[in-house]
Task: structure prediction
Amino acid sequence: MTIFATTPSQTVGPYFAIGMPWDAGPHVVPDGTPGRIRIAGTVYDGDGVEIPDHLIETWQADPEGRFADLHGYGEQSQLEGFRGFGRCGHEGGDGTYEIVTVKPGSVPGPGGTLQAPHIDVTLFCRGLLHRVVTRIYFADEVQANASDPVLASVPAHRRETLLAQPVAGGYRFDIRLQGEGETVFFAV
Amino acid sequence: MSVEHEHETEIYDPVTETPTSYLREGPDAQPPLDSPGYKSTRLRHPTEPLVYLPQTLTEITGPRLAPALGLQESDADLTRQHEGEPIGERIIVSGVVRDTEGKPLRNTLVEVWQANAAGRYAHRWDRWPAPLDPNFSGAGRCVTDREGRYRFTTIKPGPYPWGNHYNAWRPAHIHFSLLGRAFAQRLVTQMYFPGDPFFPYDPIFNSVRDERARERMISSFSIHGTQPNWAAAYEFDIYLRGPSATPFEEAH
Result:
C-alpha cells in the first residue's frame, strides 16, 4: 500500500483569535450540569513570563469514563450536552486560560490497566512550530494516580507538573513551556 | 436545510474509518520546536525530552465540533460575511483531507484564518500600517464532504512584515486547523502559494527542513478549478496521520 507523508505543522501564530475561539469553546459541559468544575491556570515561557497568545484545547471522558464521539470503542457518553472538548484562547490574552467541565472518570489503559482520571491537553502558541501535548491529572486522586501507567512512565521528580491542584470551585493547572518546573510533554 | 443537518445524515462509519492506533512520526517529520531562526521559539520550546504516550482511548477518540459550531454556508465564503465585498483577488481554495493511507476523511472540520489582501489581520495586536478591510474578517470554517473535500471562497492574503529580524516578511499564507477523527491526528499548519518570492527568507516556512516536506505546504494553481469570470483556484490537499499498521515510506 502507498503510504503518504503527513502535511508538516506550522505555528498557530499570534492572530489565531480571529478564527479559532468561539464563545462556548471553554464550556465542555453546558450550564447547569451537576458537578461542574473550573480548571484554570497560566501558561509561562522559559523566563517565567506569561504567554498571552496561546490557545489551549482539551479532550476528556465524562465522569463514567465515556467519550462524546462516534467511535466504536466502548460506550458513548450519555451525559446531556457533554462535548468532551474545550478550546480557550483570547484576542487580548493575559496568559491565563479557563475551561468549565466535569471531572472525568477512569479510562482503560494499555494491557488491561486502568488510567487515573485525566484530560489530554494541546497547547498552541506563537513560537511553537508544532503543538505540544500534556495531560491534566488531579492531585486529589492519590490512589488512582499511584497505579496510572502513564504517570508511572514519567520520571518521579517531574510528575507533579501534571497534577492539577484543588482550589475553590475546581482546580489550578499551570503550564511551563521551559525551565524550572517545566511541564511534562508527551509524544503521542 | 442547514449545512449541519445535511452532514448529520452522512456520518462516517465508525468501524471502518476509525483506527485503533495512529502512525508515530519520526523525529524529523515535524519542524524542530527549537528553531533559532524563528526567534519566538527560544523561550517557548521544551528542553526536556518528550515522554512516550501510549495511544489509549483518550488519544484515538476526538470531538465532532461541527454541530457545536452551528456552521452556516457563509462560514465557508469569506467574501460574503459582510455587506460589501472585500477588496483583493477573489480565490477558491479547496482540497481533500486524507490520512497517510490516502483515505479521505469525511465530515471533518476544517478551520482557516488569514490576513486581508493588504497583509493585515483583523486583530487588535496587528498594528502594521496596511489598511484594514471593513468587509473582511478573515476566518472561515467548513466540514469535508463525502469525498473528504473542503472548499472556501476567499481573497488572496498579502505578505506582511514582522519583527523577527531586519526586513523580515512572511510569505502570503492561510492558516489551517484540522481536527481529524482523533486527538492523535490534530494538526495546525499554513498553506502557501506557489512561487512566493519570500520563501527563501522565511524562517517559519524553512523550519521544515526537508524540501519535499515544505512543498507539501504549498498549494497549486488550478485552471481546472477556476470559476470563469469569478475566481481563480488553488488546490491544497492535507494529509493527517493514519493507521499505524503499515511501515512508513514516503510516496510523494
Summary: Helices of chain B lie at 3-8, 14-17, 57-60, 66-69, 211-215. Chain B has a mean pLDDT of 91.
